[in-house]
Amino acid sequence: MKKSLMLYLFILAILMNVFTYSFYSGEVKFAQNRYDKTTKKLRDSISLVKTQLAEADYFSLEHNENAQNYFDNSASGGKVILYEKLIPVVTEKLLDFNANPKGNPYTGQDQIGPNKFIINKVKILNHRWIIADYSNGELWGEVLLKYFVDNDDNITFEVNQTWLYQK
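Structure (tokenized):
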């Protein structure tokens, strides 16, 4: 009787070990599959975001080699203007006009009411064009500007087209 009890307990212990092993190995496979699926989703998301960013930056001086080459006049004996340094200078120069008491003249809008129009966001598209967002706190608009850099590194702007959105 004692031997058969020990035999039953031994068989029961073996069965418990087999079931425990199969449960934990299945759990490890499940966790690995879930990890693999999550990793694949994240990689796909990162790839999608990179593609969207590349599409969004298509029209930018930073990614337009032809526009960058426009500032390289070394072949004709001229000087080279580094676009990496030009972008913040042009942006800062344009935003400095926000201090004008009548508002930034390069919004293409006259002051409406007590608030002046100022430029909030600037995107340099290439060697000639800038798009900017402006507002007076109540009304919002966008402006397309031309900019020029002369031989003395003076920067001038010209309003090409402006659009003021309705309230």
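The CA atoms of residues 32 and 81 lie 53 Å apart. Strands lie at 118-124, 129-135, 140-149, 155-164.
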